Amino acid sequence: MQLSRESFIVEANKVCKNTLMETLNIEFIDFGNDFVTAKMPVNSRVHQPDGVLHGGATAALAESVGSFAAHVFLDLDEVFVRGIEISANHVKAVKEGFVYAKATFMHKGRTTQIFDIRITDDNDHLISICKLTTIALPKKK
After folding, report:
1. pLDDT of 91-123, one tens digit each?
2. Residue 40's domain is classified under what CATH number?
3. pLDDT over 60 at 1, yes or no
4. Where does the Thioesterase domain lie (predicted)?
5. CB 131 within 8 A of CB 115
6. Can you tell me the distance from the alpha carbon of 48 to that of 51, in angstroms, rounded to the nearest whole number?
């Protein structure tokens, strides 16, 4: 898919309407030849009861950005993409501001793809390290 950075951001955020990404205020902000980046605000809507970012919200951000990267870099006329496994290691708590998820390929196969997703805060501190595996399945013709 050949998109300018600006076109990508507009289109990516447009398809998020009425989805979990909109509910969590996830916004795609950048992409390049092998990565996609999104951000999410950290506030009471994504806190766990003790006032820090919920790991489930972090995992949702990671899966959203990784799955979107798979969609961008694969031929969607031929395949559809599904997440099949996600893992997350949370290494630091965050109470406010934004978190940023950058998904990059670890493996870009025809059938399976593996993404490294680093979640950082406003000061570029590592918050979580996630790994997402997706599968590209052929569309029925």
Report:
1. 999 999 999 999 999 999 989 999 999 999 999
2. 3.10.129.10
3. no
4. 51-127
5. yes
6. 6
* Cα dihedral 13/17/53/68 (nearest 10): -50
State which amino acid sits at residue 75. D
Q: How many domains does the chain have?
A: 1
Q: Could you read off the pLDDT of 35-62 as tens digits, one per residue?
A: 999 999 999 999 999 999 999 999 999 9
Backbone phi, psi, residue 70, to 5°: -60, -40
Q: What is the mean pLDDT of the chain?
A: 93
Q: Which residues are catalytic?
A: 63
Cα torsion 66, 35, 135, 77: sign: positive
Round to whole Å and give the CA distance between 101 and 36. Answer: 8
